[in-house]
């Protein structure tokens, strides 16, 4: 039997690299998948690529309470229940020292990366089946600091706080809540951070990041997705309230 047979999963940030590949693996493991993203064009492209009766999508801004309630209600209407919530949507902002960081971009990051996580858990939990699983995307930036990424680092630390409170409050219903903490991932977000760190010298920045990782490379989106599948499945039924680091050894140095 497939590990997620007859399970229903919501994935926010469903148009991004990690959301998309996780959706693919969820489908392969037998789940029904409800994708959420603010970018309708990219979301539709993912839906077309993974087409089938077991995948649906909804355009929503995770930072808005009414949008979050809407995508939760739509998922229940489409599939009748929620067993898994991959609370994954996030943005990186810009690379600037704290003293120069634009207030409006800080506020946007807090809205998506913190309020979006908070609202997601708030409105999903009442509809989630007992014994379900919530997986929240943080980062190694939710464990250590990185110069120039103050707003992102702050938001990813906050995700851990939301995770821990959610894990305690959901435990009586045997709902597990964990966070995943990737190192730099080989995707669009890191291309943005590399270019932001040194305009025109992104490849040099990439090599510097890689040199700081003991295993010598970035993570691939599918590696993050495989960890999420494990946490979504009953194989992780006694794991909750944890920070699951997947970083090639970056934070142990």
From TrEMBL:
Keywords: Oxidoreductase. It holds the Pfam family adh_short_C2. The keyword Repeat does not apply. CDD domains: SDR_c (cd05233). GO terms for molecular function: oxidoreductase activity. Transmembrane segments: none annotated. This is Short chain dehydrogenase. It comes from Emticicia aquatilis.
